[in-house]
Design goal:
The protein has about 350 residues and is an alpha+beta fold. It contains twelve helices and ten strands. The strands form two sheets. A seven-stranded mixed sheet has the order 1-5-6-10-9-8-7, with helices on both faces. The protein binds adenosine-5'-[phenylalaninyl-phosphate].
């Protein structure tokens, strides 16, 4: 393990040395120090060491981590300075320019999509409701049938305010709140911000947006779910778009599925954008509401059934507007925003 660590240190430091942009540096951080990073997995293996070896290797691992973090911080600073110098050199500011023409900004495509989605569901008979971004651990996990210490809690682990409150990891706690305060028939959607301990890449952000949908009534079936989502996808993206349901596992739905839609560029033919699969990235999770969730929320599962779905609004925006990097939605760069 000692050799593994020293070898890793040499590789990381040489990668840091060669990094030319903050993005490249961030990829190196994720590769080695991220949740699934190499150093993280080496540290996970420490449990297998003997009691004598553990403190020695632990000390070395900490030294390696500190050294990597120091080098990263230094490199980050030097790249930042170089970037600023380049901007100062390339972008002149003409303080004498006549700005009598007032330029009005344009709305972020994310907000447009969110409102468009709400309007679409409203036209399909859904109520649009709000939920808090800080919610209870119970609403976010327990009442959604997550068994205690379920691995998926760790996967979507998040920012805790205190032991009982957190920044919600999905919009599903709004389902719980709604079922606890309304009797069926229920047909609602709720959109808003969600938070996860996810590393940033082209399709992931630690803060992103979801829209949750819930239908509960007598005789609601999986066929209704598939039909609703198919209708919705066609109304949003066009009649020629198809949906693909892949089996999945969520503790709060049974059965559960993840849904992809046809690639927006080639409409399913296969092209470089979709790696010739014909399908875009995963857009949403869905399923039939688990009877335990209905019971915990005070609804009789013998009488009522329901379906629910949760969609990534950022990803829908990306597919809709052909945006290939989620970071662009948050950079607030006018050159990007003015295109919409
Ligand atoms: C959920 O969050 C479930 N609550 C969805 C659900 C609701 C299932 C109701 C069943 C019934 P998942 O973790 O797969 O599922 O996330 C849903 C969508 O959010 C994903 O399909 C993806 O589009 C988006 N998403 C997830 N993580 C991120 C992220 N870090 N950045 C951007 N979008 C994300």
């Amino acid at each position: 393990m000692k050799n593994l660590l020293t070898d890793l240190k040499t590789r990381v430091l040489s990668d840091i040395e060669g990094a030319e942009s903050l993005e490249a540096l961030e990829s190196i951080r994720v590769k080695y120090l991220g949740k699934k990073g190499e150093l993280t997995s080496i540290l996970r293996g420490m449990g297998k060491l003997s009691a004598e070896e553990r403190p020695i290797i632990g000390l070395l691992a900490n030294e390696v981590r500190d050294e990597i973090e120091t080098q990263m911080a230094e490199k980050r600073e030097s790249i930042g300075e170089a970037r600023l110098a380049k901007i100062i050199e390339e972008e002149e500011l003409d303080v004498t320019a006549n700005l009598s023409e007032v330029r009005v900004g344009s709305r972020n495509p994310l907000n447009r999509t969110m409102e468009e989605l709400e309007e679409l569901f409203r036209s399909m008979g859904f109520s649009v409701v709000d939920g808090p971004e800080i919610d209870t651990v119970d609403n976010n996990f327990t009442f959604l049938n997550f068994p205690e210490n379920h691995p998926s809690i760790e996967m979507s682990d998040t920012f805790y305010i205190d032991e009982k409150h957190l920044l919600r990891t999905h919009t599903s706690p709004v389902q719980v709140r709604y079922m606890m305060s309304h009797k069926p028939p229920i047909r609602m959607v709720s959109a808003g911000r969600t938070f996860r301990f996810d590393d940033v890449d082209d399709t992931h952000s630690p803060m992103f947006h979801q829209i949750e949908g819930l239908v509960v009534d007598e005789g609601v079936s999986m066929a209704n779910l598939i039909d609703t989502l198919d209708l919705f996808v066609k109304a949003l993206f066009g009649e020629d778009m198809k949906t693909r349901f892949r089996p999945h596992n969520f503790p709060f739905t049974e059965p559960s599925a993840e849904v992809d839609v046809s690639c927006f560029d080639c409409k399913g033919e296969g092209c470089p954008k979709c790696n010739f699969t014909g399908w875009s990235m995963e857009l949403l999770g869905c399923g039939m509401v688990h009877p335990n969730v209905l019971s915990m929320c005070g609804i009789d599962p013998e009488k009522y059934t329901g379906f629910a779905f949760g969609m990534g609004i950022d990803r829908i925006t990306m597919v809709k507007y052909g945006i290939d990097n989620i970071r662009l939605l948050y950079d607030n760069d006018k050159r990007f925003l003015q295109q919409f």
